[in-house]
């Protein structure tokens, strides 16, 4: 079966959990002998980049065709994090009503003639392309499944920070106008998938997708072998793995952990793994503190070695999350998770496979870390539940449910 997938970013430009979920889906479909076509955003490289550049990859897993182009706008979505807010503002307007993206999407669909269309985050490939998808799906009576990953249809940045729910960025007049326009653009795809109850409820309460078949389906995880555990529990070893950005709470985590070390010197250490705008800032914060190790980004194949030395992964996000990939990965490797209770962190079950704390509360996180230190045996006992808690999230089970919707 030929499956057409549209996403904002695709390898080698992936940098978020949503991108990982897309890649896992593509790889899983190829493994099942489906033919996959991906339409995604590229960089401005002259006028030729306005037309899709085609890459046909004959991999061991199957045939993968990638259409990569520059949707006409002020700059490429792939560089948005380096742009000032005043340049992003008009960019979002062009992106929503991008007729160029609509035209390219329609032409690619007519050329490829897929039997199923999967759409994911569309910011950067133009929201209006979903109108081309909907038109094509209805005309040829084929299935269209849209997956939501964050709040980007309601808030342009895709982020709502704890404590800022009523700010102008999250609920002001311009944001409400943006939300109303996106309700009209997206209308009601045949099927809408969310990886968490939280995110689906978030959109439903705001009037999105009124006629869609709405389904909660957790994101698939790559198959891994649980990490061989090397820790001797002295000191306890915690891990932060993810983007080094302010909204992910990594600065908050390092500040809180330094307070923790003042009370419990030499009894715990924290390893920070990842890349992002605040990497140099975090390295400076860790200077002179041997218990905090900042290693920067690492390839995925190094994760088993890292997790083998970890007692618990800390997920300190300050923004409302959907279903964070790192939580599922940590549990898959057999490592409990200490997660900020915000958004869709439903995989973490307190005192079953980890602990939760109030997002942004340094005092609450300190209490949780102290509990881990005081009750090490309890923390170690949680390991037996970690892998069990993510059973059924393998890619084949996910795709079977997805393609039968």
Structure notes:
This protein is of the alpha/beta class. 36% of the residues lie in helices and 19% in strands. The chain contains 15 helices and 14 strands. The chain has helices spanning 17-31, 85-96, 99-112, 129-140, 168-171, 173-186, 197-204, 250-263, 279-286, 303-307, 325-332, 362-374, 376-381, 383-386, 395-403, and strands spanning 2-7, 35-41, 53-59, 62-69, 116-119, 143-148, 191-194, 213-216, 236-241, 268-273, 292-296, 312-315, 337-341, 354-358. An 8-stranded mixed beta sheet has the order 3-4-2-1-5-6-7-8, with helices on both faces. Helix 11 links the parallel strand 12 and strand 13. The chain is globular. The protein starts with a strand and ends with a helix.
Summarize this entry quickly:
The protein is built from 15 helices and 14 strands. It is an alpha/beta fold.
Keywords:
405 residues, alpha/beta, eight-stranded mixed sheet, 14 strands, six-stranded parallel sheet, globular
Strand line-up across the major sheet? 3-4-2-1-5-6-7-8
Structural class: alpha/beta
The mean pLDDT is 92
Strand composition percent = 15-25%
Pick out the low-confidence regions.
none
Total strands: the figure is 14
Residues in helix, %: 25-40%
Rg value: 22 Å
Q: Give the CA-CA distance, first to last residue.
A: 15 Å
Query: Quick one: biggest sheet?
Result: 8 strands, mixed
Q: So what's the overall shape?
A: globular
Helices, by number, come to: 15
Secondary-structure element sequence?
A: EHEEEHHEHEHHEHEEHEHEHEHEEHHHH
């Amino acid at each position: 079966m030929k499956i057409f997938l549209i996403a904002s970013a695709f390898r080698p430009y992936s940098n978020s959990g949503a991108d990982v979920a897309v890649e896992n889906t593509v790889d899983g479909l190829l493994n099942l002998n489906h033919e996959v076509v991906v339409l995604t955003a590229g960089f401005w490289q002259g006028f030729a980049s306005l037309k899709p550049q085609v890459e046909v990859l004959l991999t061991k897993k199957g045939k993968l065709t990638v259409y990569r182009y520059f949707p006409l706008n002020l700059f490429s979505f792939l560089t948005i994090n380096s742009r000032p807010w005043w340049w992003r503002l008009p960019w979002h307007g062009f992106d929503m009503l991008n007729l160029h993206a609509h035209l390219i999407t329609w032409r690619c669909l007519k050329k490829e003639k897929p039997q199923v269309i999967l759409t994911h985050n569309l910011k950067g490939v133009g929201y209006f392309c979903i109108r081309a998808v909907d038109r094509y799906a209805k005309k040829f009576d084929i299935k269209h499944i849209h997956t939501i990953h964050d709040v980007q249809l309601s808030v342009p940045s895709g982020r709502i920070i704890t404590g800022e729910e009523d700010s102008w960025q999250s609920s002001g007049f311009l944001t409400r106008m943006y939300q109303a326009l996106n309700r009209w653009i997206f209308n009601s795809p045949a099927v809408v998938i969310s990886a968490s109850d939280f995110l689906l409820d978030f959109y439903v309460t705001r009037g999105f997708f009124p006629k869609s078949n709405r389904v909660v389906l957790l994101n698939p995880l790559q198959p891994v072998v649980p990490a061989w555990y090397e820790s001797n529990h002295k000191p306890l070893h915690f891990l932060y793995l993810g983007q080094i950005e302010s909204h992910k709470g990594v600065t908050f985590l390092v500040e809180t952990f330094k307070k923790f070390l003042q009370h419990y010197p030499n009894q715990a250490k924290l390893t920070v793994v990842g890349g992002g705008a605040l990497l140099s800032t975090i390295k400076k914060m860790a200077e002179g503190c041997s218990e905090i190790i900042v290693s920067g980004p690492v390839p995925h194949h190094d994760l088993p070695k890292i997790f083998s030395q970890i007692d618990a992964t800390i997920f300190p996000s300050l923004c409302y999350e959907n279903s964070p990939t790192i939580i599922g990965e940590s549990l898959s490797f057999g490592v409990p998770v200490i997660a900020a209770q915000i958004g869709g962190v439903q995989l973490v079950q307190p005192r079953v496979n980890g602990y939760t704390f109030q997002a942004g509360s340094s005092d609450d996180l300190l209490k949780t870390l102290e509990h881990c230190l005081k009750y090490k045996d309890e923390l170690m006992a949680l390991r037996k539940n970690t892998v069990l808690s993510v059973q059924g999230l393998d890619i084949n089970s996910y795709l079977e449910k997805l393609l039968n919707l």
